[in-house]
Specification:
The complex is a heterodimer of chains A (641) and B (101). Chain A has 641 residues and is mainly α. Chain A has 26 helices and 2 strands. Helix content of chain B is 76%, strand content 0%. Chain B is elongated, with a radius of gyration of 17 Å. The chains are: A mainly alpha (641), B mainly alpha (101).
Chain lengths: 641, 101
């Protein structure tokens, strides 16, 4: 089965071709079925690969699959090869598993949309690109997938492009991601200069010989990789595109902007850990960016009125956790959180999507309330997702988050500051997600009269995936206990311990694990309790608290004015430059040259025009004179004697 | 007795200048045509003379080519003239100046 891993890519590719070329001609319905089925088949192949992998000894679990020779030019030789190992299989299972559920959900969610076929074609090409990204055996193939998911994300954010705001959101995501793509490309160039090759195994096995620990070159390579990772995973300071990306259909937000694509940055850092290990400075930067993003995005999430934006900031915040984890060297903890986050965040988005669908597109929390009776299935789904996100004991988020908080304190690269930041985010998370939960499902209904009369009840295709994901979000944490504690760590150790030693945990830190777990649970429950007090018990409290700190409230509501700052720093000078180039430079210089050329031709023409009299005898005379001149010249040089 | 070759060349020059003046001063296209024929035949005469002088056959061959080309030229030229005549009453070349720039 391992050698058949290319099938994982083939199914979504065929699904894409079907939906984009023939599906729309045959029937709309078939597109949804084929697209979902393609992803489901990929999942089954991935599952088969996992089963076979588990039977192999650890050393044989990493398989290179060269499919064909892709690029051969001089010293550069890049085969189109896939790397099947525990890390990529884990990602494949998350992408196709969650992807399959979201595809099924989307068949219901997008039912009434005119562009049904285009939607599923794009979803399948996204899955294809994402799978290529995680299965790539070299940096160059990674870049192909990297660019592909960027494109699919752009096209799906701007899916309803008739509304200019959606098109702008798509463009914004594309531009921000391009910054990251440039960073990634430059990193690939530097890797090629230093190693002369681009395949993972070659680069990683030579990493410690060719690059000295903490050398400027090593730091430069990984910081450029970090730019790519941060842009894709919406980490500070390149996070601004993700909240706007909520303009896309909700299944897109669930699949691309919560569960899979945005985790590509975490995957990239985990995949290139042999390089990161060479630069403790860069690792510290990764951890710091992660912790800051987690805290920063959580504060914004506290006050956002749009339910999808709350979840978007929550995603940034949770991705910050993953960055923190990989930054302190706890790679498998980061991957574990990536998996559980994919479950509960996709669940939250799908439940929120169910509400939005029921309310005919309403996303504003201020126009919801009391919906638990209207859409009970989504209510339960959201509740499970929210509890898992808040780290409620024994749900999936609880296990993965605790590992990260523990690592932030205990790892030798960690520090108490990072740990305290991670802990405080737990409280904020509990608060903001339950704020959204209470505002949406509890209290009195603030739904518009007209909308309330036309509730779209979610169909089975929407409820079933929510149910499956709810089970996964609740119990997903136990995959870490299959065959004893730390199963994920053991499963991934062939990857993370193949080229480098793991980052050691500080001496005597084990003793901290249980107290930390207690503290984080208490902080999380505290956040939930405060949300309960402010939004259920004393519904007027929220406004009053906001009134006490108007400055802080506005700061959070306006997302720390980062968009405005970027507008001031980059957009405005860019526009100035554009106006300068369009006006004086283009008008006077470029156009001047062009017009001048045309005018001088005209002058010549006006001068020579006099010669053309139209009288035959003038031409005859001119010929005569010309012949005479030629004759005299020939006689002069002796051509005619 | 054969006249000296220089006489032939002088005759050729006189014929050429006559033809040239005809082309330059006359207004009637038919007369201009005849003048052009005169110039062509002046050139033919010179060709044949030199061919005789140097014992080379090429000059005589070229004279035949020139005659052929002249005949073709007359065909085209007369066609043009007759179509001009169809459009306007007289065929004064000074009035046919639509090529003026």
């Amino acid at each position: 089965m391992l050698s058949n891993a290319w099938l994982i890519l083939a199914f979504p590719a065929l699904g894409f071709l079907y939906c984009s070329l023939v599906g729309r001609l045959i029937s709309r319905r078939s597109c949804g079925v084929v697209a979902s089925g393609a992803v489901g088949l990929s999942f089954l192949v991935g599952l088969g690969a996992l089963v076979e992998m588990l039977r192999l000894p650890a050393a044989a679990q990493s398989v290179q699959l060269p499919l064909w020779n892709w690029i051969a030019a001089g010293k550069l030789s890049v085969p189109f090869s896939l790397l099947v190992d525990p890390l990529s299989i884990l990602m494949v299972l998350v992408v196709t598993g969650v992807g399959f559920l979201i595809h099924v959900y989307a068949t219901g969610y997008m039912q009434g949309d005119a562009d049904y076929a285009r939607f599923f074609a794009l979803m399948n090409i996204f899955v294809l690109a994402m799978l290529m990204l995680v299965l790539a055996g070299s940096f160059l193939l990674l870049m192909v997938g990297w660019g592909g998911v960027g494109f699919a994300s752009y096209a799906l954010i701007a899916f309803w492009f008739q509304k200019p705001a959606n098109a702008a959101a798509g463009t914004k995501a594309f531009v921000m991601n391009s910054i990251g793509d440039v960073g990634l490309l430059l990193a690939i160039f530097l890797i090629f200069i230093n190693f002369g090759r681009l395949d993972y195994s070659g680069v990683f096995s030579q990493a410690s010989q060719k690059l000295a620990v903490n050398s400027p070159m090593a730091t430069a390579v990984v910081l450029l990789l970090l730019i790519g990772a941060a842009a894709k995973s919406a980490q500070l300071p390149l996070h601004t595109w993700l909240p706007d990306a909520m303009a896309g259909p909700t299944p897109v937000s669930a699949l691309i902007h919560a569960a899979t694509m945005v985790t590509a940055g975490v995957y990239l850092i985990a995949r290139t850990h042999p390089l990161y290990q060479l630069s403790p400075t860069a690792m510290t930067i990764v951890a710091t960016i992660g912790a800051l993003s987690a805290l920063f995005a959580a504060t914004i999430g506290l006050v956002q009125p749009n339910i999808k934006r709350v979840l978007a900031y929550s995603t940034i915040s949770q991705l910050g956790y993953m960055f923190l984890a990989v930054g302190v060297g706890a790679f498998s903890a980061g991957m574990f959180h990536l998996v559980t986050h994919a479950f509960f965040k996709a669940l939250l988005f799908m439940a929120a999507g169910g509400v939005i669908h029921a309310l005919a597109g309403e996303e504003d929390l201020r126009k919801m309330g009391g919906l638990w009776r209207t859409v009970p299935s989504m209510y339960l789904g959201f509740l499970v997702g929210a509890l898992a996100l808040a780290g409620f004991p024994l749900l999936s988020g609880f296990f993965s988050k605790d590992e990260i908080i523990f690592a932030a304190f205990a790892s030798q690269r960690g520090s108490p500051v990072l740990g305290v930041m991670a802990l405080s985010v737990v409280g904020l998370t509990g608060f903001y997600v339950f704020r959204a939960f209470f505002l949406c499902f509890h209290g009195t209904s603030r739904v518009d009269e007209q909308v309330a009369h036309h509730i779209h009840k979610p169909g089975l295709s929407m409820v079933a995936p929510v149910g499956v994901l709810a089970v996964l979000a609740a119990l997903g944490g136990y995959i870490n206990f299959v065959g004893g504690t730390g199963a994920i760590d053991r499963f991934l150790s062939p990857v993370f311990e193949r080229y480098t030693d793991p980052v050691p945990v500080a001496v005597g830190a084990e003793a901290m694990q249980e107290p930390l777990m207690m503290v984080s649970v208490l902080v999380g429950l505290g956040g939930i309790f405060v949300a309960y007090l402010m939004y259920v018990r004393y519904p007027n409290a929220a406004a009053r608290v906001g009134g006490w700190y108007p400055g802080l409230y506005r700061l959070f509501l306006n997302k720390w004015y980062v968009d405005e700052l970027y507008g001031f720093l980059f957009l405005r000078p860019g526009r100035w430059l554009g106006e300068l180039l369009a006006g004086p430079v283009d008008g006077a210089i470029t156009d001047g040259i062009v017009r001048g050329a045309a005018r001088s031709v005209e002058w010549f023409a006006l001068g020579f025009k006099r010669v053309e009299t139209g009288f035959v005898r003038d031409y005859a005379l001119a010929i005569l004179l010309g012949a005479t001149v030629v004759l005299f010249y020939l006689m002069q040089i002796g051509g005619v004697r | 007795m054969i006249a000296p070759q220089s006489h032939y060349l002088i005759l050729s020059g006189i014929l050429f200048v006559l033809g040239m003046s005809g082309v330059l001063v006359r207004k009637n296209p038919l007369v201009m045509f005849m003048s052009i024929e005169l110039m062509l035949n002046a050139a033919n005469l010179a060709f044949v003379t030199f061919a005789y002088r140097f014992g080379a056959i090429e000059g005589q061959v070229v004279a035949f080519f020139v005659m052929t080309v002249a005949a073709a030229e007359v065909v085209v030229g007369l066609a043009i003239i007759s179509s001009i005549f169809r459009v306007r009453a007289n065929v004064d070349v000074d009035e046919v100046s639509s090529l003026k720039g």
